[in-house]
Amino acid sequence: MLKETLTLQHISKSFPDGDRTLTVLDDISLAVKEGEFVAIIGPSGSGKSTLLSVIGALLTPTNGKVVLDGEDISDFKPAQLTATRASNIGFIFQSPNLIPYLTVKNQLLLVGKFNHTNKRANLSKMNELVQELGLQHRLNNYPNSLSGGEKQRVAIGRAFMNNPNIILADEPTASLDYERGRTVVEKIADEVKSRRKAAIMVTHDERMLDVCDRVLHIEDGKLIEDKSSQIKNHPTPCQT
Amino acid sequence: MFLALKEMKRAKLRYILLSLIMISILFLVFFMTGLANGLSFADSSSLQKIKGDYIVTNKEAEGAVINSELSKEQLKEISNSLEEPTSPLALTMSTIAGKTNQKDTDMIYFSVDPEHYGDLNITEGKNISDITDKEVLVNKSFKEDGYELNDQLVDESTGETMTIAGFIENQTYSFLPVVYSDIDSEFQPTQGSEIMYNAIVYNGPKMDIKGYDTSTNDEIVQSMPGYSETQGSFNVMKAFMFIISAFVSTVFFYVLTIQKTNQFGILKAMGATTSYISTSIVTQVLLLTLISLSVSVLAVAGMAQVLPEGIPFQASVSLVLGTGALFIILNLAGSLLSLYKVTKIDPLEAIGRSE
Lengths: 240, 355
Ligand SMILES: Nc1ncnc2c1ncn2[C@@H]1O[C@H](COP(=O)(O)OP(=O)(O)OP(=O)(O)O)[C@@H](O)[C@H]1O
Ligand SMILES: [Mg+2]
Prior knowledge:
The complex is a heterodimer of chains A (240) and B (355). Chain A has 240 residues and is α/β, with parallel strands linked by helices. Chain A has 6 helices and 10 strands.
């Protein structure tokens, strides 16, 4: 029986919008198991990034429970949220968002400093990830001398550095061409499988969906699970 | 620390330029303040250094020694009402005839009673209490005009010849070098036949003498004709320089931090605490300010060495320390202002957004 890394129970999120409130997420329930790679697709403005932010301890939900690794984080204070992000969540953003003045090596090592990992463990973790991502010959390069794909791979490495239980990626391939994007998504999938993490990826590119285990559609803040793509490696039929 | 140092190492040029700006600003502040202080110092230093607790002048002078006139009788009258030994003081401007092929030197006599006048800070030679009839102590600036110990000076208007018995330092009045002489040797030119005195100097408790003013050194400096007006201008100048340069450097650090807002958002999304980011910012500000401060102090010190004697310059340790502390505080304030922004940065903004 696989452990549930993430459980969302009746999550809703609304923002004040003038006199009214704007409901962006509407009663979303979801469970993601370890080793599972979930894709989220949906039209622009449907609430994908908001959902990812709620899961990623960047936003607290208006209603409902977010249980991450057995811990209910829905009522956490900002400091607790920060600590949760530092220790238990790995983010991959649309653009790599690397720190321009750090070498590849230090990009990864920096993460360990946020949750006070001991130096040696931090270093060996870094070496391990760099090997797996094929970045060993780029260790002392700065971001400006890396290709787009390499940068995104560094960002993946960074997301895995703190050994998080869940990886969240918001359109990680948007700034890459298909080939490179594909490699990046496959790298994420490899890491997720081999390390038994849970991962959620928002994407616009339906060609990436076959890499994922499960595809979720979100529309107007409501979640619709796409049954047809449940089977792995089955190309998604809903191409428009 | 990690981030701060790595960033400075990577963006060397940017931080060097930033330091250069800071150095120039601080240099400007130190240098201009030093010059302004030098000017007021050269104007008044010898009054400040009059050896005595109190200086008695006549009422009409309102504390301005140069405007005070005391006759021999008045001198006696004042002396009698004071218990302590007193020394008369006469300020007389004159000119020393230059040696062959040399310029004349304008100067001012400080004529006193060597027996009752306190010892001066000498750099060379005898002190005032040891001089004999024909001897004088002169300001060190005479050395630049080629005079040495035991050289002869000739007063152009009286034709009197005197011998340099010692050198004193930083003794100028109204930018003229001071020559301390025995009032009884009468080197100084007189108007009419009688010697006129400007003031009486004594050590001891303050005594109010009817018809006369008793003032401290500070008070007579303040009462120098034109002194407080010049000081007023200087102070306004210094104040504005401070305000403007402090403003510039504060804004600089503010902008420097604000530029990195997006980066801080990413760090926060990755789990960096606000205090981790703040420490990094504060480290940078302190480091930059301290480095710039040291370099500019060195530059000012070097500048003070090469400045010719003709340009009076006076920079004190307290000025440097005070300015330094103020700049550190203001620069920190500038970056703390942006730090406030850092606490408000929404890590959300880093997500789902391409640059
Ligand atoms: N802080 C906020 N305040 C008010 N409204 C918000 C806020 N954040 C998001 N929204 C609104 O919520 C809706 C969903 O936003 P979200 O960013 O989740 O969309 P998305 O699905 O990620 O879209 P895209 O595909 O364009 O990235 C949008 O209409 C947006 O305007
Ligand atoms: Mg989005």
